[in-house]
Write a structure and sequence with these properties.
The complex is a heterodimer of chains A (about 600) and B (about 150). Chain A is an alpha+beta fold and about 600 residues long. Chain A is about 30% helix and about 30% strand. The longest helix of chain B has 16 residues. The chains are: A alpha+beta (about 600), B alpha/beta (about 150).
């Protein structure tokens, strides 16, 4: 009777499957365990994690390290993925300035046009002049209103106002005439004085009509048709706002520029293609399919994508102690997305959504010094350690312990850095593939499309459901159901969209409504995982046709995601295949596939 | 300008102690409410504890929201909270911004929009309880890190 342990060292987790094997070859599973992988996969830094996982499993079975007869380690396939984003448009406003931050409480109503003048210079003007009053920080709202009222009396035509503090409504309420007032302009000192400006405020719940229309701008500033072409980016950036200010400076010039995002060169065995990233994700992916199988991918020096492709090579070379020349990038995934960029020339920190392409790349190599790890482990534990075989083989065998499965079976393993697939055919042939683009890419898309600039928060949004805090005592979940609390909720979450993370409520600092955040989360998952599920299965399917795979089992971390597994099963339904989350040994869910396969392979070899 | 003495008008009630300079402080709170577009009314209070002043005001308010103001202390209260646990409570010296924020946030409580956070503080002064909970979460998170 021997106690053996299958140990699977993954990128994120190290898993153990512990089993007892009697003399007649019968096996009984004793325990499973999982810990976070220590160090980078494939290095001796993994040892502490492996030992902890072994101890955990042995404890659960009421055994100790000295009872262990053999440890079977996976032959880990080193796969490294990385990501980069290239913006392909940029809104630059040079000379001309605009204020489009859409403050929550603008004052007054209507459209006002005039020359910008400081509040304190107002009463030294002549009657009949049309002006826009600029009110800096530190001015009391009552004083400001009095000065403007005095100016009204002198027939100085104050047509609108721009204020630094949050005082627009206060001032508007005290004026004899109704004029549009925009406030909360943090950089009020940067507003150019003596220039022609337009201020527009719409009714609550409505949006402006003039300043977001290029012809409206042309009317207000008496532009020629050529000049009107140049103001399109301003108009575009102000669409949907309740208030706005546009100031025309003499050399007023606005450009929407297409930034050359760079070319990537995809080399295959038969041909080579250069693709412009500006052309968008669909064109890039078409090129990727045309050049299959990919031998390598290069980017242009000085571009984000070029830098990332080199970085991925460097990291792999260092990890496996090989030369960088031997490192080949074998897959990329491009996804169209948006990224909020600060509008240069905006005076109140405005953001505009710019088109971007996100690119994931994957590099894989054959050799990982697993023997080093095996030897260190033997030294440390005094137990025989065997490197038991290729990961894909083990994974597939483990997956087959899911009740209801049979060959031909494919597994989909969606991790953080790569999406992996393997298939076992009826005649026991196993092939595997690794693709770029997985959980990390989903997180990056959520981060940029919501403008969060916070990867940890985006990761939480990806993993956990949302809710809206409607009162001090209740929240409304995504499906509309309500959860009530006996203790009042903390003020930080009041009226906010929150993430329900285990016991905590994490407020999301942006102003997006819940539906928008939910949509971004789901679309990001679809664009990465569904695309890759189909790509991966098509590549491993013996005939290239997904329909000829009868069973697909999803394993690994992302298979645990509450939405992803369902989305993929749904999208594969049209192919008439059985697809679902794995249930290893009928008890482990999608986890422990490789570790279980390692134990199974021992039995098979009859050792 | 929007002082309403009509007790039937739905408004935030600002309860205050009469002290030197209280009208200047009231003006700042009023400004916060007016900017957010919510009506308010003043009520001189006979209570001495700031929590009590705030709670009494909240109970007088048809909207259920009250502000308490005494020399050096201001709070926002809600008739749905326990009297001894106001929503916000701050000490102030001559800080106009804090008072303006209080008015603004009382209005936002009525409107159901997220609170404004002042530049120098977090939304709520952390009690020892809060701090212990935060640290506990941090340590727990470090030990059991999420599995991917």
């Amino acid at each position: 009777m021997r106690i053996i342990a299958g140990v699977d060292v993954g990128n994120s987790t190290t898993e153990v499957c512990l089993a007892k094997i009697t003399a007649d070859g019968r096996k009984t599973y004793l325990a499973s365990s999982i810990v976070k992988t220590t160090g980078v996969k494939g290095t001796t830094a993994n040892l502490p994690g492996i030992i902890n996982a072994l101890k955990d499993a042995l404890n659960m079975a009421g055994l100790s390290l000295k009872d262990l007869s053999e440890v079977r380690l996976n032959e880990a396939t080193p796969v490294i993925g990385d990501l980069a984003m290239e913006t392909i448009t940029e809104t630059i406003i040079t000379e001309s300035t605009m204020i489009g931050h859409n403050p929550s409480t603008p004052g007054g109503l209507g459209l006002g046009v005039g020359k910008t003048v400081r509040l304190h210079d107002l009463n030294s003007l002549n009657s009949g002049e049309s002006v826009i009053c600029v009110i800096g920080f530190g001015t009391d709202f009552e004083k400001a209103a009095n000065i403007i009222n005095q100016a009204f009396k002198k027939n100085i035509l104050v047509q609108g106002a721009i204020v630094g503090q949050d005082d627009a409504v206060l001032i508007a309420n005290r004026l004899y005439k109704k004029i549009p007032i925009v406030d909360e302009v943090t950089h009020i000192d940067k507003v150019p004085i003596g220039m022609y400006a337009a201020v527009e405020v719409a009714e609550p719940g409505k949006t402006i009509k003039t300043l977001c229309n290029p012809y409206g701008l042309a009317t207000v500033f008496q532009l020629t048709s050529d000049e009107t072409k140049l103001v399109v980016p301003i108009a575009r950036a102000l669409i949907g706002n309740r208030s706005a200010v546009v100031i025309r400076t003499p050399q007023g010039d606005v450009k929407a520029r297409t930034i050359p995002a760079g070319i990537i060169t995809i080399t295959g065995t038969r041909n080579k293609v250069d693709v412009d990233i500006d052309a968008g994700a669909d064109i890039v992916m078409e090129a990727v399919e045309r050049v299959q199988p990919i031998q390598d991918v290069y980017g242009e020096a000085g571009t984000n994508v070029g830098g990332m492709l080199e970085r991925v090579r460097e990291v792999m070379a260092e990890l496996t102690n090989q030369s960088i020349q031997g490192m080949k990038i074998q897959d990329v995934l491009a996804v169209d997305t948006f990224v909020p960029q600060k509008v240069q020339g905006g005076l109140a920190g405005e953001f505009a959504l710019e088109n971007a392409v996100a690119l994931a790349a994957m590099v894989k190599t054959n050799r990982l010094p697993m023997q080093q790890i095996a030897d260190s482990l033997t030294n440390e534990l005094g137990v025989k350690v065997v490197i038991a075989g290729v990961e894909a083989n083990m994974a597939v065998r483990g997956a087959l312990t899911t009740p209801g499965t049979a060959k031909p079976l494919a597994i989909l393993d969606m991790g953080g850095g790569s999406t992996d697939a393997a298939i076992i055919t009826n005649d026991e042939k196993i092939s595997a593939i690794h693709l770029a683009g997985a959980g990390d890419m989903v997180t990056m898309l959520i981060n940029s499309e919501l403008g969060l600039d916070n990867i940890d928060l985006s990761e939480d949004i990806k993993k956990y459901p949302l809710a809206k805090v409607e009162s001090m005592y209740h929240i409304r979940m995504e499906d509309g159901s309500v959860k009530f609390f006996e203790q009042p909720l903390p003020p930080q979450v009041f009226a906010r969209v929150i993430i329900l993370k285990e016991e905590d409520m994490i407020p999301i600092p942006s102003h997006h409504p819940l539906e928008k955040i939910r949509m971004v989360r789901r679309e990001a998952k679809k664009r990465v995982f569904i695309t890759n599920a189909k790509r991966a299965l098509a590549r491993v399917a013996p005939t290239g046709n997904i329909r000829h795979i009868e069973f697909v089992v999803m394993v690994g971390g992302s298979a645990l995601d509450y939405e992803v597994a369902d989305m993929i099963a749904d999208s594969l339904a049209e192919y008439g295949i059985v697809c679902g989350r794995g249930n290893i040994r009928g008890s482990e869910g999608p986890r422990n596939a490789v570790a279980t396969g390692l134990v199974l392979s021992h039995k098979v070899s009859g050792e | 300008m929007l002082l309403s003495s009509d007790k039937n008008r739905p408004s935030v009630v600002i309860g205050y102690k009469n002290y030197d300079g209280c009208y200047d402080n009231l003006r700042e709170i009023d400004a916060g409410l007016e900017e957010e577009g919510i009506p308010y009314m003043h009520l001189e209070s006979s209570q001495n504890d700031i929590d009590q002043i705030g709670y009494e005001s909240a109970c007088q308010s048809i909207l259920g929201v009250g502000i308490g103001l005494s020399e050096g202390e201001v709070c926002i209260h809600y008739n749905r909270l326990s009297p001894e646990r106001p929503l916000f409570k701050k000490h102030f010296i001559k800080n106009n911004h804090e008072l303006r924020f209080m008015g603004c946030n009382a209005a936002r409580l009525v409107k159901g929009t997220p609170f404004k956070v002042s530049e120098c503080n977090t939304v709520q002064e952390n009690t020892e309880e809060e701090l212990a909970r935060l640290i506990g979460n941090l340590v727990r998170a470090m030990i059991n890190q999420d599995y991917d």
